[in-house]
Amino acid sequence: MLSRGIKASFALGGITAHMVKLHEEGLIGKLIDVQSFDKVAAQSIMNDPSHQEVSAVEYASGQHLGSATHALDIVILSALEVDTDFNVNVLVGSDGIIRGAIGGHQDTAADSALSIIVCPLLRGRIPCVVPKVTTLITPGKSVDVVVTEYGIAVNPGRPEIAERLREAGLKVVDIKELAAKANSIIGTPDPLPFGDKVVGIVMNRDGSVLDKIYNIKD
Predict the structure, then answer these.
(1) Is the pLDDT score of 117 beyond 80?
(2) In this structure, are 2 and 92 located in the same domain?
(3) Mean pLDDT of 42-65
(4) Where are the beta strands (DSSP E) in the chain?
């Protein structure tokens, strides 16, 4: 950003010390903060008038036309799993246990002009690119790019992005190749012993049901 003179008009979401530093260096104009993740961010929001707190509705509501996510150009998100249809799981671990909250994952992916998922191909002995996610959290239609250390997969619906990445000399691969690579290293995991009891319901930002989470048998 420094060498090319690139500046962001704002950064949005859970704010960290890294974002505060970029802001203080003049690379980010404003910080729009729905959650301060560390002490540096908390001190910044107390002292800097360009670091503004917003409610969850002002941050990412799909029904609120003034929500900040509607103005996002680029969002970079993590994932526990991504499947070959670009669906993302950030909630349920490979053991079937709920890990945390969804946050604004669905909202920022859907509203941004470019949504990028960053994850390793493997975490230890656990594949992150899989044929089908354990639990659907963010639909693949909202995901444009998946970046791994083995290559970059681009949603077939965004061919112009793949073309620009190739022109830049970056390695673009089919996401099915990434899943096959993970499988060749790790092998096919045994299916999870899910029971019949629903312990959680995953809802999309419009209130529709995306998936159900079932109990793990003892």
Answers:
(1) yes
(2) no
(3) 92
(4) 8-15, 28-36, 51-53, 74-77, 81-83, 88-89, 114-118, 122-123, 126-127, 129-130, 145-148, 151-154, 194-203, 209-216
Quick one: DSSP state of residue 111?
A: H
Measured CA distances, 30 to 24, 52, 85 (Å): 10, 8, 35
3-state secondary structure of 133: coil
Q: Report how far residue 45's alpha carbon sits from residue 104's, in angstroms, rounded to the nearest whole number.
A: 20
Q: Is residue 32 part of a domain?
A: yes
The number of domains in the chain is 2
Position 63 in a domain = no
DSSP conformation class of 140: G
Place of tokens 């048998």: 217
Query: What angle (nearest 5°) sits at the alpha carbon of residue 168, between those of residues 165 and 174?
Result: 30
- Which residues, 6+ apart, have CB-to-CB distance to 177 below 8 Å? 151, 153
Residue span of the structural domain in which 3 resides:
1-54
Tens of pLDDT, residues 83-104: 999 999 999 998 899 988 888 9
The CA R_g of the chain, rounded to the nearest whole Å, is 19
Distance of CA 186 to the CA centre of its chain: 24
Report CA-CA distances (Å) from 35 to 32, 94, 212: 9, 27, 27
